[in-house]
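Entry 14. Ran structure prediction on the chain below.
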Amino acid sequence: MDNQLNSLIKINDANGTARIDVRGSLTQASRPELILEIRRVRRMGISSPITVDLSQAAFVESSALAGLRFDLNTLDAGAWQVSSRPAPGVLLEVFSSRDTVAEARADFTALTDPAGLTEAQVAAGFRPLSTYSSHELLAASDSVFALLDDPAGRSGHELLARYEAIGEEIARRESTESAVQHATPS
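Output, structure tokens:
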């Protein structure tokens, strides 16, 4: 497999924005190169979020994507220590457009919206993610994440859509728990 990142950096001076389009492979071997490019763009003075577009990448290794997210969180945490301002962050795009996301998520909207379940899905044992226990939700996340590396498996967009839906449910629960903890007097 080719581990070349083959990225193109686009800087819009008028808007002060930057975009890194990845056309090659994001793997554990090419991930450090992407982090270096993100840092290089930051050193150019771009203070708005940098968009990293992975939608046209030839291959995205799930462990590299997870490592990239960890690296980006570390970069943001470092920016907080240097400045009192919030870190501008990096936006990861894994779909070419919101329409593609909607197409890929068509059968997963029911996972987050119980009213979207069809009779056939209910009969097949589908249920909304909101009814999953925390343990089931994490197990589902791990299972889908593992499938992302299987080139003979399901469509990448389909798996990413499912993974995104699970992540949204986990984030919803964390924000609900956080709100309850802050509302409860100590």
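The domain at 1-94 is CATH 3.30.750.24 (Transcription Regulator spoIIAA). Will compare against last week's run tomorrow.
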